[in-house]
Amino acid sequence: MNDGKSSCRKTQFKDGSFLSNVNCFLGEAFEFTDLDALFPGQNIAARLTAPDRAVENKVSLLMDDGSTVLVNASRVQHNNDLGPYKGGIRFDPSADIEHTKALASAMTWKCALAEIPFGGAKGGMQIDPRKMSMEELERASKGYMRAFADILGPDQDIPAPDMGTNAQVMAWMRKRYEDMNFGRISPGIVTGKPVSYGGSKGRTEATGYGLIYCAEEIFGELRNKRVVVQGFGNVGSYAAKLAFRRGAKIIGLIDPIFFKGKPALFDEKGIDVEKILEGGSGHEGNGEAEKVLAAECDLLLPCAKECTVNDGNASNLRCAAIAEGANGPLTPLAHDRLCKKGIVVVPDILANAGGVIVSYYEWLQNKQGEYWDEETVLEKLSKKMKRNARHLENFAKTSGMDMRIAAYATAIRRVAEARNESGSQ
Ligand code: NAD
């Protein structure tokens, strides 16, 4: 039975790198799944912790001024017991291989929990796309594909967008892959493509909308609930938009890039999210990020990036519940502290799975030569998110685990079973 403490929390774990945070939660879930008893002598836990393969390449990038720079790029393939490796590519100066390993591991558990036939992977390139021209970005995207094409493929490893990449980047990558493969048409090599170039309707909004479908299943309807959203990019903006449309009162939005002057917008009467989005980035802020994050509210949606809620600010939070839109926004210490205060935390691998679920629908459409309408995609997504949320919440309640450890334990069990079936040789 869970005593409410993870093994790393018991050993006075300190907030560390994102990889050590993921491994902390994973370690506790391994204890609960007791894999040695289920699959004696196979050492499955060790085999599921380290990635299957982690490749690092230097990509040579021609800049508009004629200079050439060498940038670090990586692809980490964590596990493919349930299907082809699957996971986004991040363009960000912080996207080094250690960070990418943690994100790849999280993808394995997210796909397993969502019950989609994919494994887990992630890619990174240490560039800052906001400082690059479109031409430089196209060369970087195609350079990434050229460097990793030999380990990618529609039935092998399928990238998608993540922070700093988007549908346009996926289109460039698809084109380069096909050029390298004698023009063989392969739309399923990447997901998250533009709809006009083999993408799926509903993919762009899938993660943000999925987060709201999941939150509604667990917390009930959002009408009149006070919501704060941290990170107003792809995930945060679509989550805020759908919550607003459902009648929630969005009282705080935090994003130092979207807002100018001050990094956040606060209005206890509620913000008209659609109007803010129409105006685009550069809207005048009126609040400090940490103050708005700590505002009293019914639901906090951290949708920015890893470790934004940590040992330093967790005890200030006055939200009643959290649903994680970003990957790993809460560190283990923050998670522990908030759970002890009775705050329900809906974990990332459940709550932000909408993107990879619709990526799976896109891959299926590509394989079958079909185009589904938006209503079909979003209806399927909503049903799946709600069903998965219901199952996990019930399992957490009956097992006595918090939802995060219950999520990891469920996913580990599924991957371990597949690994066991395939034999040990
Ligand atoms: P994005 O780049 O579109 O948006 C992130 C936003 O967060 C940016 O606008 C940025 O300015 C803001 N931000 C950065 N640091 C911040 C901080 N400290 N406080 C407040 N705002 C901050 O990226 P995204 O695609 O929305 O991804 C966000 C998170 O969600 C990442 O952790 C990503 O891995 C995860 N995620 C994304 C998807 C997807 O489909 N896009 C799917 C699953 C998980």
**CATH superfamily placement of the domain at 206-351:** NAD(P)-binding Rossmann-like Domain
pLDDT < 50 runs, ≥5 residues:
1-6
Number of E-state strands: 13
Task: Estimate the global geometry from the Cα principal axes.
Answer: globular
Indicate the mean pLDDT: 94
The spatial strand order of the largest sheet comes to 1-2-4-3-5
Continuous helix count: 16
Q: What's the end-to-end separation, in Å?
A: 34 Å
Percent helix, as a range, is: 40-55%
Overall CATH architecture of the domain at 206-351: 3-Layer(aba) Sandwich
Structural class: alpha/beta
CATH topology heading of the domain at 206-351: Rossmann fold
The largest β sheet comes out as: 5 strands, mixed
The hetero molecules present are:
nicotinamide-adenine-dinucleotide
CATH class of the domain at 206-351: Alpha Beta
| Topology pattern, helix = H, strand = E | HHHHEEEHEHEHHEHEEEHEHEEHEHHHH
Beta-strand portion reads 15-25%
